[in-house]
Amino acid sequence: VNQDYTLDEAKPLGEGGFGAVCIAVNKTTKAQRACKKILKKSVKDKRAFEREVELQKALDHPNICRLYDCYQDGKMYYLCMEICKGGELFDRILEAQHFGEDTVGMLAKQMLSGLLYMHCNKMAHRDLKPENLLIDEEGHCKVTDFGLSKEGIEDNHSAMTMCGTPEYLAPEILDKRGHGKAVDWYSVGALTYEMLTGLPPF
After folding, report:
1. pTM here?
2. Angle at alpha carbon of residue 90, lines to 175 and 194, rounded to 5°
3. At what angle do helices 89-96 and 182-197 cross, to 10 degrees?
């Protein structure tokens, strides 16, 4: 990673149990990225992690957080992604308590646009929640975190895995009779309600 990027580790953008996020500047293009550093020992399922990385690298849409480059050394993975200095939608909701209809309409449209792109490519996100939506400097919403996403999914009930976050979880996931891409639309509905009221619907 240090061959291609200059990492500004003195000013972390965020930290967590996985590692930390810092600003990275591409040495050739001078473009700023967010470099997510992940401790290898914190990755329990290497195959699933690599699948998630490859899936995100394949996605190219204005409302999906772009993954540009991936690196690794003996201890860490380094994911150089599109930088979203506005932070998580979750923090924006906490700060504002609720949004006006115009703002909610704009954000919901952007979420739907990113999800429609995924669905047209036979992928479902399956864990849409405020923590997995980032805001860039211009206020645009970006879908991120594809750890529970599934490829090859259709509109039928072919997926069986119990997954997601309870407040935004579609009923068909809970009843274990199979689900399809429509579970993402349910999550957008729950998010829209929460952005308008400041409270989850259930």
Report:
1. 0.88
2. 60
3. 30
DSSP state of 65: P
Per-residue model confidence as pLDDT tens digits over 85-113: 888 999 999 899 889 999 999 999 999 99
Choice among 127, 136, 145, 184 that is catalytic: 127
Q: What share of the chain is helix, strand, coil (3-state, %, to 5)?
A: 35, 25, 40
Task: Tell me, yes or no, if 127 is annotated catalytic.
Answer: yes
Strand partners, 151: 123
Q: How far apart are the first and last CA of the chain?
A: 44
User: Strand (E) positions, 40-130?
Assistant: 67-72, 76-81, 123-124
C-alpha to C-alpha distance for 45 and 120, rounded to whole angstroms: 28
DSSP-derived letter for residue 159 is B
Q: Are 180 and 157 in contact (CB under 8 A)?
A: yes
Residue type, 82: E
